[in-house]
Amino acid sequence: MSYEVTRQHVETYFDRTATKTWERLTSDAPVSGIRATVRAGRDRMRDLLIAQLPHDLTGARILDAGCGTGALAFELAARGADVVGVDISPQLIDIAEKRRPTHVTGSMEFSAGDMLDVSLGHFDHVVAMDSMIYYSQDDITRILHNIAPRIRGNMVFTVAPRTPLLMAMWRVGKLFPRADRSPTMVPHSPERLSEAISRGTLRNIERVTSGFYISNALEYRP
User: Fold this and answer.
1) Which of 43, 56, 95, 202 is a good FRET partner for 72, with 20 to 30 A between their CA atoms?
2) Residues 6 or more apart from 209 whose CB is under 8 A from it?
3) Cα–Cα distance between 26 and 153 in angstroms, integer?
4) What is the domain extent for residue 156?
5) Is 59 left (phi over 0), alpha (psi -120 to 50) or beta?
6) Strand 151-161 versus strand 213-221 pairing type
7) Would you place residue 182 in the very low, low, confident or very high pLDDT band (cuts 50, 70, 90)?
């Protein structure tokens, strides 16, 4: 599927099917054992991505691409960043607005839209936590090349790693009729992604595995 088709599929899924589940998962509410491992993994990944940015973010303009319910944006703003949070799901943006902290050192601006929208402007850093896991290698390459001219520092993001388990899940998912599928993570090899980009450098940071949560952090520098 093309970038546009995948984006629409993900938006429909989160706005019509998974909103309540995602709202609960990203809150402090009790969750089942499986979802607890996902929550723990996401917490660890969020800390890992933040660690790739300067400790003092005062005045830094940061794009949170695929901000979801806002947890990462809140932490960045608390450290002084001026955060632009964008997500393709209006429902998740509504949740982020409701959870917006009263006092942060920096600022936050949330909107529903496409992270590739050039009207968003230029940024010191870009973070994209688990928002690019549904896209093909060609799509990810396009995203990086598109956003590169508007980044002054680095972009940290995650992909689904190319493990035997995730490859099996990906193959099984393709057997279902397209209308019945939830968005399927596309497994990637950091080495192959690095070879595919024609500008900038890609660095493999670390893989986080926590039960049913498996994600690989990468850093891109134009």
Assistant:
1) 202
2) 41
3) 28
4) 3-221
5) left
6) antiparallel
7) low
Burial class of residue 46, CB neighbours in 10 A (0-12, 13-18, 19+): middle
Q: What pLDDT score does 1 carry?
A: 62
Rounded to the nearest angstrom, the gap between the alpha carbon of residue 41 and the centroid of all alpha carbons in its chain is 14
CATH number, domain with residue 161:
3.40.50.150
Stronger pLDDT, 12 or 137, i.e. the higher one: 137
Query: What separation, in Å, do the N-terminal and C-terminal C-alpha atoms of the chain show?
Result: 26
Count of domains observed in the chain: 1
- Please, which residues bridge with residue 218 across strands? 157, 204
Q: What 3-state DSSP class applies to 153? A: strand
Please give the Cα distance from 38 to 42 (Å, whole number).
6
Q: Say if CB 147 and CB 124 are below 8 A apart.
A: no
User: Which DSSP string corresponds to 90-151?
Assistant: HHHHHHHHHH--S--SSEEEEEES-TT-GGG--EEEEEESSSSTTS-HHHHHHHHHHHGGGE
